[in-house]
């Protein structure tokens, strides 16, 4: 198999070749290895290789829907026994996973070949992927720009053609943001749809879910079929979808849908014209298909949603830093993690339990409001991000953050920052490029990013669709329909733009 041929197939396409005995799993494995070794020096998407383990596994004839297909896993939440689990942090550089995660176990049963782990920001905290421990991952379509985060390494690997599919998870947009930045399809499933255990019963209090990044809708749908199903001990569950997500793609969206949309930032910040244009093009297509379109904002307080999301963010970082003691054998210090991580942890440490619980209650307020909203509207459409991909380094500490670090460094506490209103300013600053995605994480709704636009610079732009809880089938149906339309920005178009 030649390089160009390998890269034109999606995961199901490669699995079909294996099934027909037109190609052997070891051949696909070596082709993927070659792509990784050729492209990774520029992209820095893969930070840990598992080639020999994969070669040994390839000697056994694989079975399953994706038998023989190479895949990369994200270095957060997708543990493989005896392999590294660093979460992008130098503090965990020597840690090795003790068991397979349930996510990995289900993918293994599907026949995938695991080739390595992808680059992530420290603890998955950023919408970019520039960890101090491993260096910046880069966007295949413009190497000076970010592929997004926190699943940035996975997005770069799939968009470049290293593998057709890579593991991803989403706690605030970490599937949808990289999908938008790299011209991929990214679905965040409903809370409880995919497994997060067994080391966790809830991932980021239920905000985070596991899935994948893909080039095609059908790969994402087929993998959701493999991942869905009850998980013992999980904090959240949802009635199982009794059909096949892959099969539903063969059925057109027959009824005329009511669709709401907004291009306004929920935290009242700027939205780039290209991101607005992407939504406009999508709406024009949907109107041409006979669907009803109405401009209306989501029935939630965007700033309260942002504040409650950041409350989770601060608390989880603080808890993660505290948990490092068990691994390091001592309390973590400012030298063990990145400066911004330490700052976030101190803010979390300064929060009271009362404050945390009150902010968590906002999740339920938003969830009920959105479920009522979706009684009327089938989809809520927004830009996936407020801006195209940022340049590498654009997210270095700003003056405000530097001041915050100096204050907390001297006092060892973030209480003063809160009194000065600096925490609120940090919330605004950190979410202004990506204010649209967090709502679905807090409410538990499914949401997806579709590649529908490219800037004059050749950078992809995505549009986000949200649906009521449990409605992945409707999202996938619509994605499958748009994928066949001229609106969809296919990989061939992006390759042409990247080559100019």
From TrEMBL:
Residue stretches making up the Amidase domain: 27-476
Gene3D superfamilies linked to this entry: Amidase signature (AS) domain (3.90.1300.10)
Domain of life: Bacteria
UniProt-listed PROSITE patterns: AMIDASES
UniProt-listed PANTHER family: GLUTAMYL-TRNA(GLN) AMIDOTRANSFERASE SUBUNIT A, MITOCHONDRIAL, TRANSAMIDASE
The family this protein is said to belong to: Belongs to the amidase family.
Name of this protein: Amidase
Species lineage: Bacteria, Bacillati, Bacillota, Bacilli, Bacillales
